[in-house]
Amino acid sequence: MSVRAVEGAAGCGKTHRLMAMLAETLAAHPLTAGQRVLALTFMHGARRRLSERLKGVAGLAGRVQCCTVDAFAWRIYRRWRGLAAALEIPVTPEGEFDAVCDAAGRLLEQAEVRSWTAMSFPIVLVDEGQDLRPQRLRMLVALSQATHALIAADEFQCLDQALRPNPLVTWLQNQVEPETLVQVRRTNTAGLLSAAAAIRGGQAPANGQGFRILPPGASVPLAATLLANAIAWRQGGDVAIITPALQGGFAQSVIARVAQGPCGQQENGPYSVHWEGTDRDETQLILGALQLPGVCTAAEACAALRALPPSGPARATISWVNNQIHAVGRAAFTRDEIEGVIARNVALRRQHGGGGSHLFNAMTVQQAKNREFEGVVVIWPYQVGGDVEHKRRLLYNAVTRAKRWCNVIVQGQNILGAAPFA
Question: Residue 310 contacts by C-beta under 8 Å, 6 or more apart in sequence?
Answer without folding.
Answer: none
